[in-house]
User: Which sequence fits this backbone?
């Protein structure tokens, strides 16, 4: 049986979260009311997974994650308030080694979380399958320089990147390595709720040479610009011409249980774009992106997937590779160069 430690400074939230997990067959072996007690509980019980609040007294969730990863590495799922401050803190926790996160509906102390029990259980179970060594090995984007090459690039290339669990750090790493000279139009689909994708776009913008922003309905981009799919909206490529593409946001049914879905963006990109196109699938749980990779391959585009060794969760890349439509498989650190090789004029 999966064993969990629940850390939250609200007794109410600890009880609700524990009840949800217990009802789903996850044994909660300990609860803790702050980060310091949480670190001690992990050391004492050696659980399979930890749910961690962000804002707590004595030691907050970010500090607790850092301590756990240094002393007793364990998959940690952050439970964050659905606010800008909560989003930024969550990304900091991911940088420290947390595997995934879930937004608390309604804020820090929420009576609504019971309605999201299935998502909590699924996220917790997914986290138990994470490879913590791969999480630790992803270099910080702050330390990443854009790659210098001695070759030219094809005209008007477009890059579509899809990721889920463990993806934010890898996406940051990849975008930070891409030089502005490549003149890419970049579309990023990271499985992430509304309210977090805007802050994620800001982080990507800070860490890369590209102008990155959250997508809005009708947004147009050209070379040197990137869009992050907005949480709770599918992002379609609705038009392309003269090196500029236009996106449409829509809220059709979820695909693979998610919205935004990687497949929606990749499939519409393959249909609309007649210039060079590269599709990349990175770490994550599930099969979203496999159909998109097939579509890009069928359209004559280049397709890349992250390898198992560097993936936190080798689900999305594995399913794409199984289609037989992935051209090359690379580690997270090699992916930037692989993208540039795909748009090399000498190929």
Assistant:
């Amino acid at each position: 049986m999966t064993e969990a430690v629940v850390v939250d400074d609200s007794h109410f939230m600890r009880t609700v979260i524990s009840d949800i997990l217990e009802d789903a067959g996850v044994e909660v072996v300990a609860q803790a009311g702050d980060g310091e007690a949480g670190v001690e509980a992990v050391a004492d019980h050696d659980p399979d997974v930890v749910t961690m609040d962000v804002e707590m007294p004595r030691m907050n969730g970010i500090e607790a994650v850092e301590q756990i990863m240094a002393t007793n590495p364990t998959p940690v799922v952050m439970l964050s308030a659905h606010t800008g401050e909560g989003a930024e803190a969550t990304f900091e926790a991911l940088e420290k080694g947390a595997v995934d996160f879930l937004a608390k509906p309604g804020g820090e102390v929420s009576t609504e979380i019971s309605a999201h029990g299935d998502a909590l259980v699924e996220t917790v179970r997914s986290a138990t399958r994470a490879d913590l060594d791969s999480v630790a090995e992803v270099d910080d984007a702050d330390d990443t320089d854009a790659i210098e090459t001695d070759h030219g690039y094809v005209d008007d290339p477009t890059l579509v990147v899809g990721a889920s669990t463990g993806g934010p750090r890898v996406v940051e790493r990849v975008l930070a390595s891409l030089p502005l000279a490549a003149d890419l139009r970049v579309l990023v689909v990271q499985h992430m709720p509304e309210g977090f994708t805007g802050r994620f776009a800001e982080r990507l913008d800070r860490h890369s040479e590209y102008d990155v922003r959250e997508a809005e309905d009708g947004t147009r981009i050209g070379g040197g610009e990137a869009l992050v799919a907005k949480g709770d909206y599918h992002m379609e490529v609705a038009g392309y011409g003269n090196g500029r593409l236009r996106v449409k946001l829509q809220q059709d049914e979820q695909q693979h249980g998610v919205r935004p879905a990687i497949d929606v963006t990749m499939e519409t990109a393959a249909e609309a774009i007649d210039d060079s196109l590269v599709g990349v699938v990175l770490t994550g749980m599930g099969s979203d992106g496999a159909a998109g990779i097939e579509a890009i391959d069928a359209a004559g585009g280049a397709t890349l997937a992250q390898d198992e060794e560097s993936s936190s969760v080798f689900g999305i890349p594995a399913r794409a590779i199984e289609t037989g439509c992935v051209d090359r498989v690379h580690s997270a650190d090699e992916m930037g160069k692989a993208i540039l090789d795909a748009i090399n004029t000498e190929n």
Observations:
- The domain at 3-128 is CATH 3.40.50.2300 (Rossmann fold).
- Residues 137 and 156 are 33 Å apart (CA to CA).
